[in-house]
Amino acid sequence: MPPAEAAAYLRGYAAAWTRRREDTEVRAVWSGPSTPGTPVRATAQVLTEVVGAAEHRIVAVTYSARSYAPLTAALSKAVTRGVTVDIVVETLEGAGGLLSGGEPADAFSGIPGLRLWHWPNSRRATPGGRLHAKLAVADDRILFLTSANLTASGAERNIEAGVLLKGGPMPGRMADHIRELQRRGVLARWQGTP
Questions:
Q1: DSSP label at 122?
Q2: Percentage of the chain modeled with pLDDT above 70
């Protein structure tokens, strides 16, 4: 084969692999009543799969959190296999009376090695701002954006909607943004008091 032709084949092969790596698989995620012919996956299933898929790092952000056995088990297994697990939660103080019960961080207190973060009121530019994002990122390659909090209600009982993205640049961008908020001190380690 002439060198120019071989080079063209190699360029095409490399371009195909680059494009494949940049492709994003997008799936709808839904909790609550379903309708015939609408292919969706349940929030609880997707959430535990995202945590289970993590090999190096997972970060999750939630407004409200309550102990939810399937998620606790998945996070515990992730920590055991050496995955760095960061959970960012709202605080009772930050919620300004809109959350009741114990601190959302308490939902994860039984998982040794898991790192908890929060958005201190002193770092909020606008009084009354809330940490209301709900997402999980595994290894900068899987992103689950959802309306569901990390609770049994959010995962199983409520009507919740979300999108699961595998591949492409967006999972890494979201994880990078959270890491930068941590680095700058906008998000702080949870010490048990806001």
A1: G
A2: 93
The model's pTM is 0.85
CA 127, CA 111: separation in Å to the nearest integer? 32
| 127 Cβ neighbours under 8 A, 6+ residues apart | none
Token look-up 């990078």 returns 176
Helix (H) or strand (E) holding 45: helix 43-53
- Please, what's the b/e burial string for 104-128 (b: 16 or more CB within 10 A of its CB; e: otherwise)? bbebbeebeebbbbbbbeeeeeeee
CB 163 within 8 Å of CB 84:
no
pLDDT tens digits along 151-186: 999 998 899 999 999 999 999 999 999 999 999 999
Q: Cβ distance 148 to 41 under 8 Å?
A: no
Q: Which two tokens stand for residue 73?
A: 């088990």
CA pair distance 112, 76, nearest whole angstrom = 8
CA quadruple 161, 48, 102, 184: dihedral sign: negative
For residue 178, what are the CA distances in angstroms to 21, 40, 171, 185? 23, 28, 11, 11
